TrEMBL record:
Residues of the PDZ domain: 111-175
Protein name as catalogued: Peptidase S41
GO molecular function: endopeptidase activity; serine-type peptidase activity
One protein family per Pfam: CtpB_N-like
GO CC list: outer membrane-bounded periplasmic space
Length: 406
């Protein structure tokens, strides 16, 4: 999972509000409504100028005075829950999938994600275009073992349609006790019809890194996320690469959904001179951009043969690292276009039990390319099909080996 930053440090995928349409009836002539606000203390603290809140309070009073649940199975919603819902509607009006309000239950789930240990299936998801889209399954997770791949569109969870679910709604349905099963109805571009995938939940410990050597002087580092421990683990992997006397390096960032910004900057610094731009933080026209630069470890010469593997599951910090090293000519990119998660979120406590994850800036590559706009296009695009997976082939990795040998 990606981790959120509190002080311009971290990145995290958020949620999008999906809209569905309902048939309803109403009394068109009804105008009798009390003018006072019913059931809530209204201090109007911080009310913006030139904004008419009368429609909101009219709707609030109407709900309190008139509303009858359409079914006895609907739960009772108290005034505080209505406030939480109103804030969720406010964030939803922005149309930003990464700006999200977390009521108490969702806030606790989010804290569990940040700790990096929870019970579930182990995949990064995002509510997008009427479905739950898999950004990437975590390495060796129940989701990956069951055959879930990046780009899968989950249209049902345990039979429940996902078209109107937020990311957080879906997370609550997917999470569960170790040993229990969740059933996904999946649509995959390469398959004509949707199909079901059953996944047995487990305790998810987020993996970080793996290394291996190949014949011909090739050293492979597989990085699965950008956690707080990633810089030290990456440094140890580079030390292993150097002592192995290999001279060709492949960094596999496929299905890496990102994490700490500082981790990406630290890793880039092993390949870039001091003060070279790693990423730009764009706060909009009203504020000056912030530039993050290499720390200048720069221990490798220009003779290093270096390829980075990316795909649609490579997001945020993965895109920052790959984009910086490619634009500075330190690495060549092979694989598929990256996800395009290039925005910055800050986590703010609203109450002791609730929080707001709000987008405050955009990430740009050193050359000023917006990561969110189109993702990062690899120099050598290579498709990795379902048939390839079934046959045990990895044409993207094969191309990386070919390029690094040249």
């Amino acid at each position: 999972m990606e981790f959120l930053r509190k002080h311009a440090a971290l990145l995290l995928l958020g949620t999008i509000i999906a809209i569905s349409f309902y048939s309803f009836g109403f009394n068109s002539g009804e105008k009798s409504l009390s003018t006072s606000v019913v059931g809530i203390e209204n201090t109007m603290e911080g009310q913006p100028l030139n904004v008419d809140f009368a429609p909101f309070w009219k709707a609030w009073n109407l709900i309190n005075e008139k509303y009858v649940p359409a079914s006895t199975t609907l739960k009772t919603v108290d005034n505080q829950q209505k406030v939480w819902g109103a804030i969720q509607g406010l964030t939803g009006a922005l149309g930003d999938p990464y700006t999200v309000f977390f009521p108490p239950i969702e806030s606790k789930l989010f804290e569990a994600d940040i700790r990096g240990n929870f019970e579930g299936v182990g995949m990064e998801i995002l509510a997008q275009e009427g479905a739950i889209v898999v950004i990437a399954p975590l390495k060796e997770s129940p989701a990956e073992r069951a055959g879930i791949v990046a780009g899968d569109r989950i249209i049902k969870i345990n039979g429940q349609e996902t078209s109107s679910l937020s990311t957080e709604d879906a997370v609550q349905l997917i999470r569960g006790k170790k040993g229990t099963t969740v059933t996904f109805t999946v649509f995959r571009n390469e398959v004509d019809e949707s199909f079901e995938v059953k996944v047995v939940r487990d305790v998810i410990d987020i993996p970080t890194i793996n290394t291996r050597e190949l014949p011909g002087g090739i050293f492979v580092i597989e990085l699965y996320n950008f956690s707080a421990q990633s810089p030290n683990l990456f440094r140890a992997a580079l030390r292993e690469f150097i002592t192995s006397k290999n001279d060709k390096l492949i960094l596999d960032l496929r299905n890496n959904p990102g994490g700490f910004l500082e981790a990406a900057i630290d890793m880039a610094s092993w390949f870039l001179p001091s003060s070279k731009v790693v990423v730009r933080e764009d706060f909009g026209k009203e504020h000056e951009e912030k530039i993050y630069r290499s720390k200048g470890y720069d221990i490798f010469t220009d003779n290093l043969k270096f390829v980075i593997l990316v795909d649609g599951g490579s997001a945020s910090a993965s895109e920052i690292l790959a984009g910086a090293l490619a634009e500075h000519g330190r690495a060549r990119l092979v694989g598929g276009k990256t996800f395009g998660k290039g925005s910055v979120q800050e986590l703010v406590d609203i109450t002791s039990e609730t929080s707001l994850k709000i987008t405050i800036a955009r990430w740009l590559t050193p050359n000023g390319v917006s990561i969110s706009q189109n993702g990062i296009e690899p120099e050598f695009p290579v498709e990795y099909t379902l048939e390839d997976r079934k046959a045990g082939r990895d044409p993207q990795f094969e191309k990386a080996v070919e390029i690094v040998k040249q």
